[in-house]
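Hi U.,

Before I forget, here's the chain from the pilot set. I'm dumping it here mostly so it's searchable later in email.
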Amino acid sequence: MAYTAGDTILDDEYNTFVNSSSSPFGYNHFAGTGSGAYGLGQTHLATVSGGSSTITAAHWNSLFTGLDNIGNHTNDSLTARTAVSAGDTIAIKAAVEADLATLAASVAGGSTGATALTTSSAKQTSNSSSTWTGSHTVEHSVTFANADTMRHFFNAGGKINVQKSRTGGGQAGGGANSKDSNWTNLYAALGTIAIGSQTSTRSGSGETLTTNGLANGFHDLGTGYTHIIRLTEATSPYTSNYIDVHAKLDAAVGSAVKITVKTTAVDGAADNSYTSGNTSGVNQFPDRNGQHTATITVTSVTDAQGLASAIAESSTAVVSNSTT
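Structure:
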């Protein structure tokens, strides 16, 4: 039904504003428990019954307040309205449907305009061997209290972040060689990979983007690993070196409580070494890699701009860490 300012609102129409679980979605569906990409875990508004006379100013103002709170969190511009008082005629307010649609779309998109977020320091840090030539693979997990909390976290703008860095050199004595320097450049180009609700992002730029799975976010993941990105070294003779990021859930969205992120650094370039004869003044291991580090952080949701409470993970863990 299309609504015009001044129309009388009936209980079933008000209840659609509050509780509809199909488009146009009601407040409870995108702000309350919801399902899938909808839901932020906020307190549900009560529905009414018995005809238009049962809808009070308090009902109407609760809906106004709820819309404003979610709009503040998503940073959407909503229609300016004034509260109603007891005794006023409860009438349709202009653009309620449009505002509900705007907020529902923002939540379904992962609240990308939200700024009431805070990024943690390192939750888990995993190092490779001090020198290596094959690969360094790390799996980090982030677990939530329950499946609804996990959905609400991502729907509200929460993210799981992974970074890679080099913390040592591959030369004898720990000095950096040219391959180490190119790994540093590759990791800077990768930047932070942030896995959000519907997409993932990369903060760095440059090098060769071999696999682009950044269109995948939490709601796209299954129980097998989804390839988020492969970034390959662009500088010869190290163009066989690359970094992979994958992610998976422990169950389907709606049942999952854990996300696991896997990072794999692969050294496909030459590995020369000098172990006999006169090595004076020569780097014995000119092509070894120094120690590398995989780090995971969490961007959690705060209550600074409208939500009733913060939304964060319960725990993190190192699932595996291997160097070959």
